[in-house]
Write a structure and sequence with these properties.
Low-confidence stretches: 1-12
Radius of gyration: 17 Å
Number of strands: 0
Structural class: mainly alpha
Length: 222
């Protein structure tokens, strides 16, 4: 079942390790790549470290059977394609409306903005919009929605408090982008988690996440 405890996945010692450790293990390369990105002077270098951290996190989860059983399990979609479309429109609209207060807060607290997305050009920009943003959406939804939800279940349950806690952690993961974007990411994270709980499957949330980022980084409203 979706809400099963991570302690009940199997019988081996690895299967009995609390799910929070799998989340922490996946978080290590993600945060390490964030730190390395801060020292890159080119878009290519920035993106290379970003991709490396995300691929490493997904590879770690795939290599450990107990973690893989949580991160990559198959789930059946419970919502219609029409509702998925409504979620896409609503979350994209909220993200666009949130850009103004996000910029205002970051301008008020400029010291909290430690780094910025480099906005590559040419073929690298096309590659990042197609592959890079898909990798971002998949990795973050697997780690911060599916894995973190499962990992936090024994500690905060699976109700409103769990949604808030996991979304705040997701917001904190964007620590280098400024307090304004941290708050916006946490807010969007709440909607992602609510959608995930309703949909039953993760791929609709990954799709919404990808489209939100695609619109944000394609320069349509930049």
């Amino acid at each position: 079942m979706e809400s099963r405890s991570p302690h009940a996945i199997g019988d081996s010692k690895a299967d009995r390790v609390p799910g929070i450790w799998w989340f922490a293990l996946a978080l290590v390369p993600l945060v390490a790549s964030q730190l390395m990105r801060l020292h890159q002077d080119t878009a290519a270098g920035w993106l290379a470290w970003d991709y490396a951290g995300r691929i490493a996190a997904l590879a770690i989860l795939a290599a450990i059977p107990a973690a893989r059983a949580i991160a990559y399990r198959t789930q059946k979609r419970r919502i219609s394609f029409l509702e998925i479309g409504v979620w896409i429109a609503g979350i994209v609209l909220l993200d666009r409306l949130g850009q103004w207060p996000q910029r205002l807060i970051n301008a008020t607290f400029p010291a909290t903005v430690i780094g910025k997305y480099p906005y590559p050009t040419g073929w690298l920009n096309v590659f990042d919009l197609v592959f890079g943003l898909a990798l971002v959406a998949a990795s973050e939804e697997i780690v911060f929605r599916r894995l973190l939800r499962n990992a936090s279940l024994p500690y905060v349950g699976d109700g409103v408090f769990a949604i808030l806690v996991t979304s705040l952690i997701f917001g904190a993961y964007h620590w280098w982008t400024g307090i304004g974007n941290i708050l916006l990411s946490a807010t969007i994270g709440i909607l992602f988690m609510v959608m995930y709980r309703r949909s039953g499957a993760l791929w609709p949330v990954v799709l919404v996440h990808y489209l939100v980022d695609l619109i944000a980084f394609s320069g349509v409203w930049r």
